[in-house]
Specification:
This is MoxR family ATPase. Pfam families: AAA_3, AAA_lid_2. It comes from Halorarum halophilum. InterPro entries: AAA+_ATPase, ATPase_AAA-3, CbbQ/NirQ/NorQ/GpvN, ChlI/MoxR_AAA_lid, P-loop_NTPase. By secondary structure, the chain is of the alpha/beta class. The protein has two domains: about 10-210, Rossmann fold, CATH 3.40.50.300; about 220-310, Magnesium chelatase subunit I, C-Terminal domain (Helicase, Ruva Protein, domain 3, Orthogonal Bundle), CATH 1.10.8.80. About 40% of the residues lie in helices and about 15% in strands. The chain contains 14 helices and eleven strands. The strands form four sheets. The protein has a five-stranded parallel sheet with strand order 2-5-8-1-9. The protein has a two-stranded antiparallel sheet with strand order 3-4. Strands 6-7 form a two-stranded antiparallel sheet. Strand 6 and strand 7 (about 135-140) form a beta hairpin. The longest helix has 16 residues, at about 225-240. The radius of gyration is 21 Å and the shape is globular. The two termini are about 30 Å apart.
Length: about 350
């Protein structure tokens, strides 16, 4: 169906253009979601009500033609409401498997922190293993598979904070900010011109086969030894910091590796540069850190700590390209201006 080249940069540009017919701003959030989808990751999306968190996910799903399901998380929702269960059919006298909404390419768990910890944990196997076990039967989830969980940072009443183990399963935590005045004016004008504008406006511009081919292309992106060491140094800095009780896990290290490849690919490069890693530090690390008691009492934030730690780690001064992996001491590092 699609005429888009399997080049990930072309795929991303096509998705961004189609989503941009409805969405105004939030390019960083759109890029983060695309990176996660290209690497099999999951996203924790935070923002106040009304900033289009769910709309962004819906738009991306429509642009890629992927199956999309939204689950409104509430205190009374049960694990079986997410994964599915066996239902007795009176007509046949037998139990029939009824798959839950988790069986989709993109699953939005809206206001995930309103569900109980038991229900939140129902997503763990799906996110980690890409399969679900229902009454002893293990079923694979469709590919690609991405969970986007949203939460409101302002309302704490009636919510259940995500435990560290579950936060660690999200490749990124992305923040959807309120638009500035100029951007909100564009929003006002656009919807005044077309009040029916919404996710259904976006059409499919990339087919699933093309998207899966782009995922394979991302896997081939080269990560040099200096960049690998840079990733390890940054994660180690979070573990050694006196402000951090628990730093980045090995899953965070892998998130840097995979996301760095995708970020390079959608910028037209077949090798990762230090700026890819540095730019990804906030969304990869901030939600994973458990601060020390002293840091919390001192009003420190995980984002500020990540920024300071990254600035203490020396970036590689030279980075080899994929074509010449032995040129580490000869090729100057590129710096991404975007």
């Amino acid at each position: 169906m699609s005429d888009v080249d399997v080049d990930p940069a072309a795929v991303h540009a096509t998705i961004r253009e189609e989503v941009g017919r409805v969405l105004i701003g939030n390019d960083d959030v759109l890029e983060g979601i695309t990176i996660s989808m290209l690497t099999g990751g999951h996203v924790l999306l935070e923002g106040v009500p009304g900033v289009a968190k769910t709309t962004i996910a819906n738009l991306v799903a429509r642009a890629t033609g992927l199956e999309y399901n939204r689950i409104q998380m509430t205190p009374d929702i049960l694990p079986a409401d997410i994964t599915g269960t066996h239902v007795y059919r009176e007509g046949t006298g037998a139990f029939e498997l009824q798959k839950g909404p988790v069986f989709a390419n993109m699953v939005v768990a809206d206001e995930i922190n309103r569900a109980t910890p038991k229900t939140q944990s129902a997503l763990l196997e799906a996110m980690e293993e890409a399969n679900v076990t229902i009454e002893g039967e293990t079923l694979p989830l469709p590919q690609p598979f991405t969970v986007i969980a949203t939460q409101n940072p302002l309302e704490m009443e009636g919510t259940f904070s995500l435990p560290e183990a579950q936060r660690d399963r999200f490749q990124f935590k992305l923040t959807v900010d309120l638009p500035d005045r100029a951007m909100e004016r564009q929003l006002l004008d656009r919807f005044d011109k077309d009040p029916t504008l919404g996710p259904e406006t976006a059409g499919q511009v990339v087919d699933k086969a093309t998207f899966l081919a782009a995922r394979e292309a991302v896997e081939e992106v080269h990560v040099s030894e200096p960049v690998r060491e840079y990733i390890l140094d940054i994660v180690a800095a979070t573990r050694d910091s006196p402000n951090v009780e628990h730093g980045g896990s090995p899953r965070a290290t892998l998130a840097f590796l995979n996301a760095g490849k995708a970020r390079a690919a959608i910028r037209g490069r077949d090798y990762v540069i230090p700026d890819d890693v540095k730019t990804l530090a906030r969304p990869v690390l901030a939600h994973r850190l458990v601060l020390s008691t002293e840091a919390e009492l001192g009003g420190e934030s995980p984002v500020n700590i990540v920024d300071r730690l990254v600035n203490t780690v020396d970036a590689p001064s030279s980075v080899p390209s994929a074509e010449s992996p032995q040129e580490a001491d000869q090729k100057p590092a590129e710096h991404d201006s975007n």
